[in-house]
Design goal:
The structure is a single chain. It is built from nine helices and ten strands. The chain is an alpha/beta fold and about 350 residues long. It has two domains: about 5-115 and about 300-320, 2-Layer Sandwich (Nucleotidyltransferase, domain 5); about 125-295, Nucleotidyltransferase, domain 5 (2-Layer Sandwich). The chain is globular and about 65 Å long.
Length: about 350
């Protein structure tokens, strides 16, 4: 008998649904929200309203693409956190109502755990134990993974996440939201050694801090534009390349230290920032230098998506890890908790 799971992701500003059958993804649909571009960042209330508009058509499309009817579903999974609480509630409420109507189990999935398990959607997949550098707009973590449902954060940011540093830098440069991909785009033609920015300094050997970089970039731009009002326009690719180099260098230096400390050579990256071209290229190069087996998910599984929620739900389904109708989403949800 086939196990069919509908998964819903609504942690931030993407409404997504996916259908999985016996561990294989049959469909993966994502509806992005353009409204936030007007404000230079995600507006939580607007995100919640957009999720309400998108969730029904997105779920219908995911079921249709998979060729699965509602009556054939075995369980419904939803992102239980971390994320924007209003957005999470839209996905959770929809999932609970649908599961109740169909009288099938509910599975609450940790969003960051799902980013890590995105590596198991398609082969090749890392072997246990492995380290995963998970970098997104809201999180920057080094996770030690000993099993599908057993993970430990061994290093994380003390303040801003790497993705946040990219987006805030982009805003300082006058680039539209989301700015992280645009910095990557402009950096392609820039000189990464044109400007020097400070690395993050933390007491934790595998920890991160990006607030100092953001402040450094802000003061740098203020000083330079006072001397030359056209400075950003004239040097945009070089600024982007230099900031990108600094962030990537910081991420990989800490990952290298963690790999050496734990003596693990199965190393992965995940999360939205793992789509960054310089991070991907330098990660692979460092892996060859260090003798690592390196793993990067397909691009579509790096940014927020429901396929990663579905694959995580599959392993939770096998472990009979279900939640009840009283389950409440959480804005903060440690990856080590089930």
């Amino acid at each position: 008998m086939n196990v069919n799971i509908l998964a819903i992701e609504s942690s931030c500003d993407d409404t997504a649904a996916a259908v999985l059958q016996n561990g294989k993804i049959l469909s993966n649909v994502v509806a992005s929200q353009k409204v936030h571009e007007l404000y230079g960042g995600v507006v939580p209330e607007l995100a919640s309203r957009a999720h309400q508009q998108h969730i029904v058509p997105v779920v219908h499309q995911a079921l249709a693409q998979a060729g699965i009817t509602k009556q054939q579903l075995s369980a419904i999974a939803f992102t239980a956190g971390p994320g924007l609480i209003g957005s999470l509630f839209v996905g959770a409420t929809f999932a609970k109502a649908m599961a109740l109507a169909l009288q099938i189990p509910l599975i609450g999935v940790n969003h960051m755990r799902a980013h890590v398990l995105a590596h198991f959607i398609d082969p090749p997949a890392p072997q246990f134990p492995f380290l995963c550098l998970t970098v997104s707009g809201g999180h920057t973590q080094i996770v030690k993974v000993t099993d599908y449902l057993s993970m430990e954060v061994v290093g994380e940011t003390a303040d801003d996440a790497a993705g946040e540093a990219f987006d805030k830098t982009a805003k300082l440069l006058g680039l539209p939201y989301p700015g992280g991909p645009l910095i990557d785009q402009y950096a392609q033609t820039g000189n990464p050694d044109a400007f020097i920015f400070p690395d993050s300094k933390t007491h934790h050997p595998f920890g991160f801090s990006f607030s100092g970089l953001k402040t450094s970039v802000m003061y740098f731009l203020q000083k330079q534009t006072q001397l030359n009002p056209q400075f950003v326009e004239q040097n945009l690719p070089d600024i982007c390349a230099s900031v990108q180099k600094t962030i990537v260098k910081t991420l990989l230096n800490k990952l290298k230290k963690a790999a050496q400390h734990y003596q693990i050579n199965q190393i992965a990256i995940a999360g939205g920032v793992s789509a960054n071209s310089r991070l991907r290229t330098e990660f692979v190069a460092l892996g060859k230098q260090m003798g690592w087996q390196t793993y990067i998910p397909q691009f579509q599984y790096c940014t927020d998506n429901a396929a990663m929620i579905a694959i995580t739900a599959w392993y939770q389904y096998l472990a009979h890890d279900f939640v009840g109708q009283d389950a409440v989403p959480r804005a903060r949800f440690p990856i080590s908790e089930l």
